[in-house]
């Protein structure tokens, strides 16, 4: 049997807008983020028959998932394994200050993200491992269903790399940053992952909701 996972990075958050590192801290969606989530909800409604929406516990992902769930008429649950990376000392720090405050760890993030550990926080490899475990658990529970996963930057990259056959350490080679409210599709066929399409965002571009890359 085949399970389809539709991974959606949350819409633009206040952290994205203010260019600070959010990590596992709470930041709400901006007005643009809400609009992005609504546009993505319509794209998913038109493209898939969704059985369930699963969200990270953080409010920016839960709100994105709620908007999608209301559009497609699906129930929602929360999965802790989909939470964004615990960024330790980086959380709430402006992006522009990270190279000065944490020069070596920030360099690794930029040059070889899969081998990075946020200073005082999680490593990217640890996020990869817990996200894969969450996907396997969800596949066992909802095998044969189509499931939206409303989550975050590093979890989406982790899913894609795993489905593409890459280890966490190879993340820099296998993917780029997914856009806010973009759609990534992977399938599990009898538990075996397959990468289908990454960071679908044309619907956002066409709607004028993604004028520039949002990090």
Description:
It is a single chain. The protein has 215 residues and is of the alpha/beta class. The chain is built from nine helices and six strands. It has helices spanning 14-18, 31-47, 59-72, 98-101, 103-111, 124-142, 153-163, 171-174, 202-206; strands at residues 2-9, 52-55, 76-78, 146-151, 183-189, 192-200. It has a six-stranded mixed sheet. Strand 2 (52-55), helix 3 (59-72) and strand 3 (76-78) form a beta-alpha-beta unit. Helix 6 crosses helix 7. The longest helix has 19 residues, at 124-142. The N and C termini lie far apart (36 Å). The mean pLDDT is 97.
Layout of helices and strands:
Elements: E1 2-9, H1 14-18, H2 31-47, E2 52-55, H3 59-72, E3 76-78, H4 98-101, H5 103-111, H6 124-142, E4 146-151, H7 153-163, H8 171-174, E5 183-189, E6 192-200, H9 202-206
Helix pairs in contact: 2-3, 6-7
**Any idea what the shape is?**
globular
What is the number of strand segments?
6
Order of helices and strands: EHHEHEHHHEHHEEH
Rg from alpha-carbon coordinates: 16 Å
Helix count from the secondary structure assignment = 9
Supply the helix-strand structural class: alpha/beta
Given as residue ranges, the uncertain stretches (5+ residues, pLDDT < 50) are: none
């Amino acid at each position: 049997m085949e399970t389809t996972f539709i991974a959606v990075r949350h819409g633009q958050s206040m952290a994205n807008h203010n260019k600070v590192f959010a990590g596992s801290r709470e930041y709400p969606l901006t007005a643009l983020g809400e609009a992005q989530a609504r546009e993505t909800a319509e794209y998913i409604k038109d493209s898939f028959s969704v059985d369930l929406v699963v969200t990270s516990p953080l409010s920016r992902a839960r709100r994105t998932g709620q908007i999608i769930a209301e559009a497609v008429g699906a129930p929602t649950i929360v999965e802790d394994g989909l939470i964004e990376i615990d960024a330790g000392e980086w959380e709430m720090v402006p992006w522009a200050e990270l190279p000065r405050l944490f020069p070596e760890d920030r360099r690794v993030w930029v040059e070889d993200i899969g081998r990075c550990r946020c200073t005082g926080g999680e490593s990217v490899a640890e996020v990869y491992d817990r996200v894969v475990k969450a996907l396997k658990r969800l596949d066992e529970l909802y095998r044969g269903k189509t499931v939206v996963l409303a989550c975050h930057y590093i979890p989406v990259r982790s899913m894609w790399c795993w489905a593409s056959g890459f280890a966490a350490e190879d993340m820099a080679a296998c993917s780029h940053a997914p856009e806010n409210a973009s759609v990534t599709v992977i399938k599990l066929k009898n538990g075996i992952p397959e990468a289908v399409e990454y960071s679908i965002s044309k619907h956002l571009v066409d709607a004028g909701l993604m004028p520039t890359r949002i990090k």
